[in-house]
Specification:
With about 950 residues, the protein is mainly beta. The protein has two domains: about 1-230 and about 305-335 and about 405-435 and about 495-625 and about 675-710 and about 790-959, Maltoporin, Chain A, CATH 2.40.170.20; about 630-670 and about 710-785, no CATH class. It has a 22-stranded antiparallel barrel. Strand 29 (about 595-610) and strand 30 form a beta hairpin.
Length: about 950
């Protein structure tokens, strides 16, 4: 990996130069000049030497081969500009919930600003986003891009909307495909770890190209197959450390009609008597509650099983005086995600506590169990008054879903010359289709609750009675004897999505006029784009108005979305030589969208070459992100929303826990009136090459990102203090937004929706009814509208150094890449205040890599070090019981995640001109990643990995 533009501190450069500077012959690739005018990412200008004028990171063809990557995510995961934060995600974030990453898919995020703020291009043109959003953010699935077709990857980590339009807020990643390939080459790879578990990957890449007169046809194909990698496969992640995890087996409530133990007068729960003693946990020491512990890590995957196959072609040819080019590829990804079993849920989804009929034979016939229970009377789903037991638990079978994604992309265009101007025009069609199917672990809400009372019929209906042959579900004793009932309750909902982009563009490039210092080079263009997206889950998996916002199934809720938009744009760019060796880059773009309107974005860049070896550069630009089609078109999305407990409402909604967080269930509506997000970026630095074989770069960068789209629960809670119209008893009506209060509160205090009572007094009155209450009881499904709510600013430094030198042992190249995060501030909502993310959880301040590459005759190899600095753990946001447990173990609330260094190695041999063999070893020293407590994940998969020492064998054969 090398940087074409760079900057360096004078002191650091002098030190590094003295340490490593040795002259050598310039690399062969630099001696070979192509007559074709090349366009570099970050500019539409062609035939202009822009090397060093902007901070561009390039991953070359050799870098790709030496990386050992079988997917684009593997290729990018160690790039400093893409590490840290919560934006870049991989299959480690996959799961079965609507908020999870679709299984097998991955996205890239520059500067930790989110994948939707990074524009993905292939050969300078867009590609369709995944139809399945991550939350409400649409993103491009980078794993759908075939690795074998990539010639190089160009990464520009600065605002680029003046050149490319929407979404280039944090920058752009351009995947440049191979062309004019002549010959044939096949790669066969196998990778695995040293562990006894099976995490192997198998890969096969093939490329063939041939010149036919004035035409070249290049064909390529990729295939790789990876086994699943589970939390249970590593000792570090096999067992959750948290005692507050909800029970796998039910917790039995020993209750009376007034919810008190008739002996002690306390609220008491007991673990299921069949729970292994080693799993019995104290869940509430104050009231003597116990539960049966559950280890969620036993059912979770770090990497789902995945198969990916792709193929395509690239054609270059001449049609008379014109040049005709075509690109086509198709890819298919299949993967299987698995996550923890679904929690038991009642008919109204009101609480983790549910009721089951006490007359269940499995309960009545178990003398130990039945003796613990003092039944109370409640209505069954069919309205029969019966004795019940209160309990909570989860099913035993993990949720499993399969995902298949098919991606297509076709580009056809012409190039020519008119009046000394080069022109280019192209049509592009790109599509991504995904199908998701629940395989197991998903159950019907209504059938489950009927079976808890013996009211599930043998034909699957729910109107039977125990006396009339109704079937029972046994939630106790390991849920034995439930096979028939589980089959009746099981559902296999599906979800189908499609995302399409159709575009046409025209570009003109050439010299405008002559100035004393040189020619003014220009680029002009126009673009039209039509985007469509649909995400259509089965009805039983949707939250619907006609079902009181309830999803019919437990454990597989999805959101229906449908939207489309048309856009056209005009853009221009100039490179103006102001004086000798001082160039001014001016760019501007006007975009018009048929939904939200217009956006105008300029860019100004300045470069100065005081000597042939030194380039000073600076740039300022504005950028924007159009609201995603999911954000504009989601009909109703079931999710959970986090709000920090502000001092103004903590006593009402958080039990007085100022600074803590609450995460209630909410419903989100799409908002076609959203404004685009806006950003302003600044960069300044230099690139210095004191010799032909050494380069030092240093760049300062800053982004101001405003009007970020999201929901604002904190502001909604603040508004309820003074706006009674946002207070609802029970469900919020479908055409309004607001907070849902528990109907028991309203009934007990004789309140109605829109009540004007002072909320502090309402809580005081409620405590007279429920003496344990610490907050106002909320209902489920508060309704929020997506809005432009947040702002963030981030700034930092990038430093790179590269040095080539020859010795008797061969040719060496040393390269260093350092990213220093100086600050990352965020205001999530209007009332949340400013939080500093730099040095907080998942935002390390320093990311660095050091690589040494060696070539000697037929041998080659290298060593690499990747460093991630320490940062704050997130213990303060854990459950109080877990914080107390950690304190007992001497783990402070301000604990820091230790720094981590990983060493990689490679060794290869050219057997002959046809065959090359190589071995890559990742994590050579087999270092475990730092343990984390925040978010109950054990490992921060964004910044670290738990795979351990793993190897990749690669054989390359050239025909």
């Amino acid at each position: 990996m090398r940087k074409l533009s760079a900057v360096t501190l004078a002191v650091a450069s002098a030190f590094l130069h003295n340490a490593f500077a040795q002259t050598a012959e310039q690399a062969t690739e630099n001696n070979e000049k192509s007559v074709e005018k090349i366009e570099v990412t970050g500019s539409r200008l062609k035939g202009v030497d822009l090397e060093g004028t902007q901070p561009l990171v390039v991953i070359s063809a050799d870098d790709i081969k030496n990386s050992g990557a079988t997917s684009v995510y593997d290729l990018l995961k160690d790039v400093g500009q893409l590490r840290g934060g919560s934006g870049t995600f991989s299959t480690s974030e996959s799961g079965t919930a609507s908020n999870d990453t679709p299984a097998g898919q991955a996205a890239a995020s520059l500067r930790g600003m989110g994948p939707s703020s990074t524009l993905t291009l292939i050969n300078g043109r867009r590609v369709a986003a995944s139809s399945f959003a991550a939350g409400t953010e649409n993103f491009v699935d980078i794993n759908a891009i075939p690795v074998s077709a990539i010639e190089r990857v160009e990464i520009l980590a600065t605002g680029a909307s003046a050149i490319y339009g929407a979404d280039a807020v944090a920058g752009v990643i351009n995947y440049v495909l191979k062309k004019d390939f002549d010959g044939a080459e096949m790669d066969i790879s196998y990778s695995d770890t040293e562990a006894s578990s099976e995490e192997s990957k198998k890969g096969l890449n093939f490329i063939w190209g041939h010149n036919f007169g004035k035409n070249n046809l290049t064909l390529f194909a990729d295939f790789y197959d990876s086994n699943e990698f589970a939390y249970s496969d590593r000792a570090l992640t096999a067992q959750t450390w948290s005692p507050s995890t909800r029970g796998q087996f039910p917790t039995v409530r020993y209750t009376t009609s007034d919810y008190q133990d008739p002996v002690s007068g306390e609220y008491v729960g007991f673990a299921d008597p069949s729970c292994p003693q080693s799993l019995v946990l104290v869940t509430d020491p104050e009231f003597g509650d116990t539960g049966c512990g559950y280890n969620p890590n036993q059912d979770m995957l770090i990497r789902p099983a995945q198969q990916n196959a792709s193929a395509g072609l690239i054609h270059q040819g001449e049609l008379g005086e014109l040049r005709w080019f075509n690109e086509f590829f198709i890819s298919r990804t299949k993967s299987t995600a698995q996550s923890t079993p679904a929690n038991f849920t009642d008919l109204q989804d009101r609480s983790s506590w549910i009721y089951a009929g006490f007359n269940n034979p499995a309960i009545r016939n178990d003398k130990t169990l039945s003796s613990l229970i003092y039944p109370i009377n409640r209505n069954s789903p069919n309205g029969t008054r019966v004795p019940v037991v209160e309990l909570r638990g989860r099913f035993l079978a993990p949720k499993v879903i399969e995902n298949e994604t098919n991606a297509y992309r076709l580009v056809s265009g012409l190039q020519g010359t008119v009046a000394d101007f080069d022109w280019e025009t192209a049509l592009m069609y790109s599509r991504s289709e995904s199908d998701q199917q629940a395989i197991s672990g998903v159950y019907n809400r209504y059938k489950f609750n009927a079976a808890l009372f013996g009211e599930l019929c043998a034909d699957g209906s729910t109107k039977c009675s125990p006396a009339g042959g109704g079937l029972w579900f046994n939630p106790f004793g390991g849920q034995t004897g439930n096979d028939e009932v589980l089959k009746l309750m099981a559902e296999n909902p599906s979800r189908r999505g499609k995302s399409e982009v159709l575009s046409a563009d025209f570009r003109l490039n050439g010299d405008l006029w002559q100035l004393p210092a040189g020619n003014v080079v220009s680029a002009f263009g126009a673009e039209f784009r039509h985007e469509k997206l649909s995400d259509d889950p089965d009805l039983i998996a949707q939250s619907r108005f006609d079902r009181n916002y309830l999803v019919d199934v437990i454990g597989f809720g999805s959101s229906k979305s449908a939207a489309e938009r048309k856009q056209w744009a005009l853009f221009s760019e100039l490179l103006v030589p102001l004086v000798d060796k001082v160039d001014l880059q001016l760019a501007g773009r006007y975009d018009h969208y048929d939904d939200f309107g217009n956006s105008v974005n300029p860019k100004v860049g300045l470069s100065w070459r005081p000597t042939e070896a030194l380039v000073l550069r600076a740039a300022w630009a504005t950028s924007f992100r159009a609201p995603s089609l999911t954000q504009a078109g989601v009909e109703l999305r079931t999710t959970s929303t986090t709000a920090r407990c502000l001092s103004e409402f903590a006593s009402l909604y958080c039990g007085g826990d100022v600074g803590g967080e609450i995460t209630p269930n909410t419903l989100e509506f799409g908002n076609p009136a959203l404004d685009p997000e806006e950003a302003e970026s600044v960069s300044a630095g230099f690139a210095w090459s004191p010799t032909d074989d050494s380069t030092l770069t240093l760049d300062y960068w800053q982004f101001d990102h405003k009007k970020i789209i999201g929901t604002d629960l904190e502001s909604m809670l603040m508004r309820t203090l003074t706006e009674p119209g946002l207070r609802f008893c029970g469900l919020v009506p479908a055409d309004q937004v607001g907070i849902a209060f528990d109907p028991l509160l309203c009934d007990g205090l004789k309140l109605q929706s829109g009540f004007t009572n002072n909320l502090t007094q309402v809580l005081a009155d409620w405590r007279k009814i429920d003496t344990r209450a610490t907050s106002l009881p909320l209902f489920r499904d508060h309704i929020l509208l997506l809005e432009n709510t947040g702002n963030q600013q981030t700034k930092g430094l990038d430093l790179t150094y590269s040095q080539r030198f020859d010795t008797d042992l061969g040719s060496f190249k040393l390269s260093a890449d350092v990213t220093r995060l100086m600050s990352f501030t965020r205001e999530r909502t209007a009332f949340s205040g400013t939080e500093q993310l730099a040095d907080s959880f998942r935002y390390p301040r320093l990311l660095a890599s050091l690589k040494l590459r060696w070539d000697a005759n037929d041998w080659f190899g290298g060593l690499g070090l990747n460093y991630t600095s320490d940062y704050q753990d997130e213990i303060a946001l854990l459950e109080p019981a877990d914080i107390a447990l950690l304190a007992e173990q001497g783990i402070a609330i301000d604990r820091r995640v230790p720094a981590w260094t990983k060493v990689n190695a490679q060794l290869g041999y050219d057997v002959n001109k046809h065959l090359t063999l190589s071995l890559n070893i990742d994590n050579l020293l087999d270092r475990d990643p730092p343990f984390i407590y925040g978010r109950y994940k054990d490992v921060d998969f964004i910044n670290h990995d738990v795979l351990g020492r793993n190897y990749r064998l690669l054989a390359t054969y050239r025909f």
